[in-house]
Amino acid sequence: MNKIQTAFFVDIRGAFLILFVFNLHGVTTETTITVKLPVMEHFYTIQGEGFYQGKAAYFVRLGGCDVGCTWCDVKESWLAEKHPLWTVGEIVEEVKKSGAKLCVITGGEPLTYNLTALTHSLHQNGIKTHVETSGAYPLSGEWDWICVSPKRFKLPLDECLNACNELKSVIFHRNDIRWAEENAVKVSKDCKLFLQPEWSNEKEILPVIVEYVKEHQQWEISLQIHKYMDIP
After folding, report:
1. Chain segment 102-130, per-residue pLDDT in tens
2. How close are the terminal C-alpha atoms of the chain, in Å?
3. Which domains does the chain have, with CATH numbers?
4. 2, 58, 114, 134, 220 from 111: Cα distances, Å
5. Per-residue DSSP letter, 144
6. Tally of CB atoms within 10 A around 35
7. The whole model's pTM is what?
8. Which residues contact 96 (CB under 8 A, 6 or more apart)?
């Protein structure tokens, strides 16, 4: 029996992935895939962290994460099956209704999923796209800003560190600063560098971060200002 070799490419059309498959006999088949993602929560608020803190942004928090940070403040996001599946169209419609011009995709670990269709559709509607990721999974999607927050529990990929616009290292113990520096050598020279105190240990670790930034001025401090304002 002769094997039929195939080739394919994907065309993005709004909320769908169009898969074209070709074989050696010139026959083409087309399959439309409706993209659905587990959405834990979504809300319009103020970005509280990093380079864009203080800016209005619509957050979409996807369910599903196997990174397992012990100090994660949204552990309820870890199990994807606990959260309803939304189509790309449904997600984008909620963002549009808010009037937001910027959408942050977070998690969980958002890059567990292919986010090409979602980000393409957001761009088609004039909405900028940011991602907050641990960098543990390959990049997918069309991004205006990539924030990588590396975790020791599941190491970041070099491709994510190389591509990120912002490196945000959460600091619980002073040894975490050394970990931050190990990742900083892998990012581009234009990448913004932030040290962020872990919220439950902020009073103890913030003075350490302050002194470090004074001596290493390539770093800045990120505070979770949304928690001070008591907003999501």
Report:
1. 999 999 999 999 999 999 999 999 999 99
2. 60
3. 1-34 (no CATH), 35-228 (3.20.20.70)
4. 38, 18, 7, 9, 26
5. S
6. 22
7. 0.86
8. 125, 127
